[in-house]
Design a protein that fits this description.
With 316 residues, the chain is an alpha/beta fold. The chain contains 9 helices and 16 strands. The strands form 4 sheets. Strands 1, 3, 4, 5, 8 and 9 form a 6-stranded mixed β-sheet that branches. A 5-stranded mixed β-sheet has the order 10-11-12-13-16. The longest helix has 31 residues. It is globular.
Length: 316
């Protein structure tokens, strides 16, 4: 088909709470109910879920010990105790891998590595099934995971690298592509590997080419240049603004400051809100300057233990 106008872009961002991850089947049902019915059928649909939706599956993997903790840090401690030997091995492996950071951040990295296979399997099954059941392309938010290898029958994680990745499924439920996050937040930098632009690719689809930018990546012009070089037609952004209150608070600017693109006016930090900055320098503002056939931002909303996030999703 390859008709750029023959697609509907849809953000799917329900209010998510810790209890939603107690039962993966019930989570699937909640996500499925949130997907709008196609009142005016389009030849293709792209369902875009929020960044870090995969974080909840790590709590699921830890069962009651993780889900009933008072905080995410408390859950990390419980997850460590449940699989102490493997977590300690992954902790010491961070030194072998020359991953630099404080011991607490190394331990956080080790916990994610320890439970990555469990979290990945649940994440994959939920979003693969959603894509197939709703006959839609699915941009499955994002999940922290080492590289994933395998086939449609058996997938597994491999290696010690830990990246924030978005997996894209086609309407048959098969993986169409995996996209890494390149520009990490200060929270991520101490325990997550940044992706490399050489490993970033648009996703070919019957309606065109889909460019997926994970959250902060959509604020940087060089990725748009790369997307256009790869003939991108549509854009999807799984996103997250944390904490919940930050959305309407003064914008803190690019982090780090030296990464601020040349086309961003000086003096706006603290003078506009986070929400206004998203419109100016995120996907909406950037797409005003280039050719495209549509874009969508899907913002996380809800709480996972003591961690909260909120943002307004957008279709362009």
């Amino acid at each position: 088909m390859n008709n750029p106008s023959a697609v509907r872009l849809i953000p799917v961002a329900p209010q998510l709470e810790t209890r939603d991850f107690e039962d993966v089947d019930l989570l699937y049902e909640k996500l499925s109910r949130t997907i709008p019915e196609d009142l005016e059928p389009a030849p293709a649909r792209v369902l875009v879920f929020p960044e870090y939706i995969g974080l909840g599956f790590y709590l699921t993997a830890g069962g009651d010990e993780a889900l009933s903790a008072q905080s995410l840090m408390g859950a990390m401690g419980n997850l460590t105790r449940l699989r102490k030997r493997k977590t300690l091995w992954n902790f010491f492996r961070t030194y072998l891998d020359f991953f630099i950071g404080p011991a607490g951040e190394r331990l956080k990295r080790a916990v994610f590595q320890t439970y990555a296979s469990d979290a990945w399997q649940m994440y994959h099954e939920v979003f693969s099934n959603l894509a197939e059941a709703h006959h839609s392309w699915v941009v499955a938010g994002s999940i922290l995971s080492p590289p994933v290898v395998g086939s449609e029958i058996k997938w597994r994680v491999k290696g010690s690298e830990l990246l924030n990745r978005s997996v894209v499924y086609n309407p048959t439920g098969s993986i169409a592509g995996v996209v890494p996050k390149l520009h990490l937040t200060p929270f991520e930098k101490s325990f997550v590997n940044p992706g490399e632009i050489k490993n970033w690719h648009v996703i070919p689809a019957e309606f065109g080419n889909l460019a997926v930018f994970i959250c902060a990546d959509c604020w940087y012009p060089e990725l748009y240049a790369e997307a256009l070089a790869q003939s991108a037609t549509h854009y999807a952004v799984p996103a997250l603004v944390n904490p919940q209150s930050a959305w309407n608070e003064p914008w803190q600017g690019y982090q780090p400051r030296q990464s601020t693109p040349a086309d961003v006016p000086a003096g706006l930090t603290g003078r506009i809100t986070e929400a206004e900055a998203w419109l100016k320098f995120g996907l909406a503002g950037r797409l005003e300057k280039i050719r495209h056939h549509g874009g969508v931002v899907s913002q996380f909303r809800g709480h996972l233990l003591d961690w909260s996030a909120y943002g307004e999703s957008l279709v362009i």
